[in-house]
């Protein structure tokens, strides 16, 4: 739809996000990768820094479902919400599925380096907060799990690739 160009992909179940990323020649990020991108080496409270969310940094706090998609802002709209590494919208707009299963206590026992998440679970992890989220869900450390059985209009996905490997687009890929 023309009014959805340059807006995040949203309303997909976890499996559909995984398939979408694969279709683009990429994969879903792990929870640890997502958090590293959001926190950075500086251990930022929010993806953009330690300043509280406001309407110059993120799309959040809209209470009602208006029309599907009309509450979303274009990717990169909030210049003050970008991470120091140039990643937009890790807090707000749409929350994001990551590849891991959810276990509230996983990080109490996980490996320190490159944790991959539990082997199984009931729910998948969601990160980042959405257009309808309270500010606390935009924190870099905020995490929760939910069922991937429904298409949620506040949840989308972001694709990733391994660092150091050249990006090899497939026939369905676009350079975004």
TrEMBL record:
GO MF annotation terms: formylglycine-generating oxidase activity
Pfam families from the UniProt entry: FGE-sulfatase
Gene3D superfamilies the UniProt entry points to: paralog of FGE (formylglycine-generating enzyme)
Top-level taxonomic group: Bacteria
PANTHER family hit by this protein: FORMYLGLYCINE-GENERATING ENZYME, SULFATASE MODIFYING FACTOR 1, 2
Chain ranges of the Sulfatase-modifying factor enzyme-like domain: 4-161
InterPro entries, per database record: CTDL_fold, Sulfatase_Mod_Factor_Kinase, SUMF_dom, SUMF_sf
Organism from which the protein derives: Zunongwangia profunda
Transmembrane segments: none
Entry protein name: Sulfatase-modifying factor enzyme-like domain-containing protein
């Amino acid at each position: 739809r023309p009014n959805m160009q340059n807006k995040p992909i949203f309303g997909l179940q976890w499996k559909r996000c995984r398939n979408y990323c694969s279709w683009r020649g990429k994969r879903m990020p792990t929870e640890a990768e997502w958090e590293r991108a959001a926190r950075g080496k500086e251990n930022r409270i929010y993806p953009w820094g330690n300043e509280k969310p406001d309407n110059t940094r993120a799309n959040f706090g809209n209470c009602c479902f208006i029309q599907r998609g009309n509450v979303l802002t274009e990717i990169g709209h909030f210049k003050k919400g970008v991470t120091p590494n140039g990643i937009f919208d890790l807090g707000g707009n749409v929350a994001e599925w990551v590849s891991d299963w959810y276990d509230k206590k996983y990080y109490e026992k996980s490996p320190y380096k490159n944790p991959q998440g539990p082997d199984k679970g009931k729910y998948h992890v969601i990160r980042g907060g959405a257009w309808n989220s309270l500010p606390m869900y935009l924190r870099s450390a905020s995490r929760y799990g939910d069922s991937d059985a429904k298409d949620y209009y506040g949840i989308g996905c972001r694709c990733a690739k391994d660092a150091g490997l050249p990006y090899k687009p497939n026939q369905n890929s676009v350079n975004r």
